[in-house]
Write a structure and sequence with these properties.
alpha/beta
Amino acid sequence: MKIIIINGPNLNLLGKREPTIYGNASFEEYFNSLKKQYPNIQLEYFQSNIEGELIDKMHEVGFDYHGIILNAAAYTHTSVGIGDAVKAIEPPVVEVHISNVYAREEFRQHSYISPNAAGVIVGFGLKGYQLALESFIK
C-alpha cells in the first residue's frame, strides 16, 4: 500500500511556528515515527509552500497511490485549484488540520477541499495524520 502525506505552506515550520497551536515537534520527527509504526505501508511525505507544486504532486501520484493525506494549510481556504485537483484524481484524499479550524478565525472554517475529500480530520494535533492513515487500512 502506497500512501503520501502532502503538506502545504508553513508546515515546514512545525516545532518552531506557534507552538501553542501546532506543538513542539517537527513534522520530520513525527513522520519518522509513523514510518516505524507502519512498516508495511510505503509512506511518503511531500511539503511545499507553493500552490502549483502541491497540485503537481497530486497529479503525479493521483493515479498510482492508494491514498493521500492532505493538509493544504492556508490554501485549504483559498485554493479552488487544489480543490479541483482533489476531485480530478483517483485515490481517496483525507483532509487533515492540526488545529481545530472551527475554533479559529471565521475564514478558516471554509474548505475548498472538503467537498471532494473522503473525510476530514481536525483538531487532534499531529495525531490527525495517524487517524487519517488508519482510515486507509482495511
